[in-house]
Request: fold
Amino acid sequence: MATKNDRAAVARAQAQKQVAAKERRTTVIVIAASLVLLAAFAGVVYFIVQSSSVPTMADVHKPAGSDLSGGIPVGASGVAGAEVDPDTVRVDVYVDFMCPWCARFEDTNAEDLDELREAGDITVVYHPISILDRASAGTKYSTRASNAAGVVADQAPESFLSFTAALFASQPQEASAGLDDDTIAAIAVASGVPHEVAESFTDGEFTKWVMAATDQASMDGFTATPTIVVNGDTLDPNEVNYMEPGGLRAYLEEIAGS
Reply:
């Protein structure tokens, strides 16, 4: 039969177990909270470092003829880097070469834009940006393709439109590794870009320009592609259906004729 002292000893042991369990729970909670705070802090630090590492448009080496918005103007001649004719309608087109909707926009509207541009009604300002690097399995395809477009605009401006059209025609699927550098160069050469220019893509001459242009687009409020801006007004696809054949053309012809 258990004595009074035995019962007291058992009670003390149970109490000690309860205290120890409570202390373990408290320790786990404190550690978990610390990890959450550490992760949050790390996220803030990463954001600050990333933001501070992005150069500004005013500070980067830019393709010839590009402007401080990150745009590459193409006028009636079809040559990249032409000055924007103030008597034409300015059409800014923000694209990511990994974006399937951008490829669809190109397929739907390229011919209409070319005809209106060649007629002297519009100037198209192309903005190659890289918001989908995360969707290319770590290869930064969007940045590599946009850098290549910048190189062509700078060194072979007469081939800019044919090259960018060919990039969209050969667009890889999202979440794939994208096209490798040799394939991008081959597409460029087939589009009329000189071999020596295509071979220089891997130098990354305009990588910082792509970063700055992407950051500038974000600061200007453009977070998706394609984004279309006409004379400074961002088009609402619910009002101007630029994914429907003829939709954008009809709107631009109305603006040009007013």
